[in-house]
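Q: Structure tokens for this one, please.
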Amino acid sequence: MTSTNEFVIGTRQSALAMAQTVQVQNKLKDQNPSLDFTLLGMTTTGDKIQGQPLSSIGTTALFTRELEIALENKECHMLVHSLKDVPTKVKAGFVIGAMMEREEPNDVVVMRPGEFRELKDFGEGDVVGTSSVRRASQIRRLCPGVQVKDVRGNVNTRLAKLDAADSPYTCLLLAAAGLQRLNFDNRITTKLPPNTMLHAVGQGSIAIECRSDDEETLALIKPLDHLPTRLRCEAERSVMRILEGGCSVPIGVWTEFVTPSSTSSSTEAELASTASVKTLRLRALVASLDGQDIAEAEAVADVKGDVELAIELGRTVASLLLSKGAGKILEKVLQDRHTTLVPTETVEEQKVKGWEV
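A: Here is the predicted structure, written as tokens:
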């Protein structure tokens, strides 16, 4: 390990992961000009398995395991993740020391340049590309008759697959935040509001993980922790933790702070005040793979800026979902995860860890 004047930040080698990590690096440099922050890029299991839908692998920590090994071995001081990739049960001895201010958590529709169609007009003959069973199940519910095909790779690769002359895809479903961080805002065709599609747990936030006994690193990253984001994301992660979900199950969420008198959403300016992070609304759903069976729940709680109360709100919503049949839906989803998405790679590539067609 390097001297305490130099801090090593570990992350994945993908363009998006690096862009996010540079964002963290720059903020740490601004706040600590006398210190050096260097980057360490690594390849994870999720990066290596490209010919197989993530849902069929049936495990968590696909994008974090190798990074945490490096952190445990003290090859780096901290890790930068997309929060949605971080398992809800953080490995013993580690802690998410900061959840950075969330960008737009919405999903978006991406079509080829110059093309535009309303989502309601999608149906028979249209092919939607996504690697997310959450998006797949919701789009099947919204647009009966569409075919959903897996599309893996980094953002550049996915866009190239869409734009290719022989592309099978009508559109892609992606996260707004990832496109924005890579300056691909111009590729967003339509942003999907929560009444159309609920996003992934933690989507839009960057997580910084470190060893729980590393007080120096914890002190460095603490100023990057954004309370409104942490409250929202801890509530969301609490739902998933109880339902034991991950990349392989279709759980969607939406959180927002509301004013108690009218339950209208608070503006970003209002959220700048701790007094405004009091009343939190959490919506969540669990869907079957075909989108036909849905369990939905919503609750509002006065969390008073307290993380534990936000977590309790998540538990409440999870209990409501289970009372509405979410457990049976998830049980069936896990049984059928090998048929969640249509793979688009070769037969040889599909025969990875049990995926066969």
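A few notes: Residues 19 and 255 are 26 Å apart (CA to CA). The chain has a mean pLDDT of 86.
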